[in-house]
Amino acid sequence: MVNHSEYFWDVYRNKRVLVTGHTGFKGSWLSLWLNRLGAEVTGFSKYLPSTPCHCEVTGLQEKMAHHEGDIRDFRELEKIFKEFQPQVVFHLAAQPIVRESYDNPKITFDINLGGTVNILECVRQNPCVKAAVIITSDKCYENLGRDLAYREDDRLGGEDPYSASKACAEIACHAYFKSFFNHADVCQIATTRAGNVIGGGDWAADRIVPDCVRAWSKNDTPVIRKPEATRPWQHVLEPVSGYLWLGACLLNNPRGVTGESFNFGPKKDVVKSVRELADLFLKCWGKGTWKHVPPEGTKKEASLLKLSCDKALAKLSWEPLLTFAETVELTAQWYKRYYKNETNGADMYDVTNAQIDWYVQKAISRGAPWINGVKV
Q: How confident is the model over 11-67, as pLDDT tens digits?
C-alpha cells in the first residue's frame, strides 16, 4: 500500500476540504484520493448521477461526510460553508452533458454559471478558505475546428448551451479574481480545463465508454454517432492529479499560479478519434461490436478538439503520464472487474485504490513534481 500522505507536499493532511459534485465521476475519484491524503473531506451534491455510479459502488458515501444539496441554492451552500469552515474547495458540481444542454438550456446555465457564482461568493464571504480550484471544461473555448491545440489565452465561447455555460463560468471566475482575490491575504483561486475523461465508474448517458460497457455487459450493440470526431482522451487520474497539485501550489507557492487557468490534457499523441477509442476498448474488453448511426436533428457537437498543456508544464511542472493504450487498458480493467464479479462496494473501493497506487508508482518512476515536492 502506497503512503499517499508523502505527496503533494503533504498539504492536505488534516485540511478541511469541500468537494462539490463529489458523487460525480471525477468528483468521487478526487474525494477518494483526498481521503488517502489524510484530508477531512465533505461533499456537497444534489444526487447520485446514475445507477450504478462510482460513488455508490465504492461505498464512498460511508467514508466521508455527505451533504445532499443543490448548487443553485445559495442559502443551502452558504450553510455548509458556515458549518464546515473549509480551508480548500474543489468545485466540480455541473450539468456535464452537451446533448442534455439542448433539452434543458436554462438548467444548464443555472447550474454551470449560477452554481459557480454561488461558490465564488461563498469563498469571498468565508476567509477560512485559503485555496479554491474551479473545474470547468475544455469545451469553454470557441471551437474553430482547427487542427491546433487550444491554449489558455485563446478566445472563450460556445455554440451549444453547455459550452457557452462553461465559458461564462470562466469569465465569472476571472471577474471575481480581479475584483476580490488579487492580493496575498485572501483565498487563492484558479480554474482548470480538462480534456475528455474516461475511467472506471462512469455510467453517464451519451458518453462513449459508459454506452459501450452498458451494451457489451448485456451482449448488446452500442451506437456511436460520430466515430471520426477527435478528442483529447485521458484517464481520470491524470486531471485529478493536476487538480490536487494545483491546489497544493495555491496553498504553498501561489506566485504565477493564482488567478490563472490551466489545461490538463493527455499527451499530444493521445488525441484520437472516437473510432480508435471504441476499437481499442473493444479489444481490451474481449468481445462485442458497435455500430455507427449518424446523429439526428440539430444537436451539434464539435468534431475536432485538442488541448495544449504547455502552460501546466511551464508553471506547474505538470505533465500527463499515461499512453493511450494504458488509459484504455486501465479503464477496461476496472469495468471488467465490476461486471465479472458483480462485486460489492468494498471490493470496488479496493480496485479503485489499487489503480491510484499503480498511477502513483508510475509518477514515482517518472519523477512527477507532486511526488518529489518540486518547487514551481
A: 999 999 999 999 999 999 999 999 999 999 999 999 999 999 999 999 998 999 999
pLDDT at 296 over 80: no
How many CB atoms are closer than 10 A to CB 259?
18
Pairing of strands 230-232, 271-273: antiparallel
**Residue 96: closest CA among 81, 111, 78:** 111
- End-to-end Cα separation, the chain, in angstroms: 28
pLDDT higher than 80, residue 219: yes
Cβ(243)–Cβ(133) below 8 Å: yes
How many other CB atoms sit within 10 Å of the CB of residue 361?
A: 12
Q: Are 352 and 29 in contact (CB under 8 A)?
A: yes
Model confidence over 56-73: pLDDT tens digits? 999 998 999 999 999 999
Query: pLDDT tens digits, residue range 135-193?
Result: 999 999 998 877 788 999 999 999 999 999 999 999 999 999 999 999 888 999 999 99
Q: Any idea which residue has 446555465 for its cell?
A: 109
Domains of the chain: 12-367 (3.40.50.720)
Q: What is the mean pLDDT of residues 84-95?
A: 97
Give the pLDDT confidence of 266-295 residue by residue, as tens digits: 988 788 999 999 999 999 999 999 999 987
**Among candidate residues 125, 113, 267, 242, the one with its CA nearest the CA of residue 190:** 242
Q: Is 24 exposed, middle or buried (0-12, 13-18, 19+ CB in 10 A)?
A: buried
DSSP string, 181-239: S-STTS-EEEEEEE--EE-TT---TT-HHHHHHHHHTTT---EES-TT-EEE-EETHHH
H runs (alpha helix) in the chain: 25-36, 54-57, 74-84, 98-103, 105-109, 115-125, 161-180, 208-216, 237-252, 274-285, 310-316, 324-341, 345-366, 369-372
User: Please, what sign has the CA dihedral across residues 316, 322, 324, 328?
Assistant: negative
From residue 4, alpha-carbon distances to 16, 24, 33, 35, 37 in Å are 17, 22, 8, 9, 5
